[in-house]
Amino acid sequence: MSDDLVPDDLWERVAPLLPPRPLRRHRYPGRLPADDRAALRGIVYVLRKNVSWRDVPAERTGCSGVTAWRRLRDWTEAGVWPRLHEVLLAELRRAGLLDMDDCAIDGSHVRALKRGAHTGPSPVDRARPGSKHHLIVDRHGTPLAVSLTGGNRHDVTQLTPLLDAIPHIRGVRGRPRHRPGRLFADRGYDYDKYRRILRARGITPKVARRGVPHGSGLGKTRWVVERTFAWLHQFKRLRIRYEIRADLHLGLLQLACSIICLRRLRTSF
C-alpha cells in the first residue's frame, strides 16, 4: 500500500489524537472496520485530487470513499484537526521555526457549489453562492489559525475571531505564545475601531490606509499570507467548496494547514 498520501511522520502525529473505536460485539460482530490509516489516506486523496467521495480508489487507499467520508465526519466532530494543528505549531516553536513577532491576515473567496451553512452571495463572483477562507500567518507564512464564513462577510469581521482562534502554542519553557507582536493587513482592515482593539490586546496594528497611494511598504511583510493561500489552493479540494456541511470543509482546511506546518518541519531537518 502506497504511503505517499499518509507518510509515517504525519500518521505518528495523527494516531494519538483519534477517538477510540466502539467495542465490537462478541456475537455477530459484523465486518471488520477499515483501518484508520487507510481512511486518512482516502481523506488526503480527496483533499489533493478533488475527486468525489464515491470515486476514491480503494485499491490505492485501502478503504472506500464512503468510509473515508464517515471518518472525516467523526474525526471533525471529535476535534481532531485543530488539535493536530496545535501539536505541529508547538513543534515548530520548539524548533525555533515560528516567528509571531510579525503576523499577517487576509481573506480569500471560493465558490460554493452546493450552498450550505457559511455561504452567501459573493461580491467578486456576480453574487453567486460563495464562502471565504480567512487566514492569519506568522512571518514565514506558517498558518496560525483559519476560519470559514459566507462569501458576503467582510474580512474585518474575522479579525478578532481569528486572533481568538490562535491556540496557546507551547514548545518552549515559559508562557505559551498566542498573540502576535505586530499585525499586517491591507486596506480592508482600515478601521480605527479595530486598531484600538488590537492595541488593547498588546498588538501593534500595521494596516494600510484607504485613500493613500500604493507604496506603503506593507507588502514586503504581508505577501506571505498570499503565498500561504497559494499553498492551500494546491490542495484542489479547497479551490471550490463542495461540502454542504461547513464543519467538514473547515476540517479539510485545518488538515491542509497541518500538512503545510509538517512540510516546514521536514525542510528544517
Describe what this molecule looks like in 3D:
The model has no long low-confidence stretch (mean pLDDT 91). With 269 residues, the chain is of the alpha/beta class. Helix 2 packs across helix 4 (65-77), helix 4 (65-77) crosses helix 9 (246-267) and helix 5 packs parallel to helix 9 (246-267). The chain contains nine helices and seven strands; from the N terminus they run αααααββββαβαβαβα. The chain is globular. Strands 1, 2, 3, 4, 5, 6 and 7 form a seven-stranded mixed β-sheet that branches. The two termini are 26 Å apart.
How are the elements arranged and paired?
Blueprint: H1 8-14, H2 36-49, H3 58-61, H4 65-77, H5 80-94, E1 102-112, E2 120-121, E3 129-137, E4 143-150, H6 159-165, E5 182-185, H7 192-200, E6 204-207, H8 219-232, E7 240-241, H9 246-267
Parallel strand pairs: 1-5, 1-7, 5-6
Antiparallel strand pairs: 1-3, 2-3, 3-4
